Predict the structure.
Amino acid sequence: MLSFQRAVQLGIALRLGLIVYGEYHDRHSALKYTDVDYRVFSDATKLVWSPTASASGNQASGWLTRRLNLGLGDPYGRDTYRYTPLLALLLVPNELLHPLWGKLLFSICDIIVGQLLYKIFCQFPPTSIRPSDRKPKDAAGNANDTQLRSQVESSAAAWVSTIWLLNPMVANISTRGSAESVLGFFVVSSLALLLSGREGVAAVMFGLAVHFKIYPIVYSISILRWLTIRHPQSGPWRTGWLSWRQVRFAVISGGTFLALGLAMHSL
């Protein structure tokens, strides 16, 4: 049986191998391994970090950049860059350290998602492997059943994580330079935090996910409904679907989304 720790190690080795292979492939083939979007990200990052390097100067026009004299450029000077400036800022080490930084970052997010899936699955195993109603047993029998259930749950969780960590399609997407793994990290992190009871931090992560790309907002209805199911008695605000926990989650996540949007606009 492949352990979770070994799956993580193999997942890291797989992604590092694909990154190295991608560099070799790009140098020797007209059909590039690297996603064209990664080149767009990298060009936008270069414009942000070195605006004077472009022919037009490309200085950012946000009030905060002007007031603090940050010397940042406008990532939208790169044609087809349709993403939040936050992504370009995350890839600044591409200019400072190495052009492969972004691929390493995306791969790290992949690995963290696999670890979060393992944690979630261990915390909430399927009902089919939870304790069932059986005839009464002695203490030794109950202890054996508990140990067996723990082993089954750990094994199943390891398999779920392994399917993600060693999935060649998942590894291919991140090592080619797609930023989808960063979004996956934000979404799965918000789910893990929510399930662990840290609803405020989960709301911040969810607002960050929606800022990064808009479509995770479709999960908001499920989250708000789940808050009602988990906390059926949540104070005087509760009237059917509306509860104080739902209002707090919506305010924090919406506030995070708006704050990030204003911050990026000010740059």
The first helix runs from residue 4 to 28. Confidence is low (pLDDT under 50) at residues 128-135, 140-145. The radius of gyration is 23 Å. DSSP finds twelve helices and no strands in the chain.
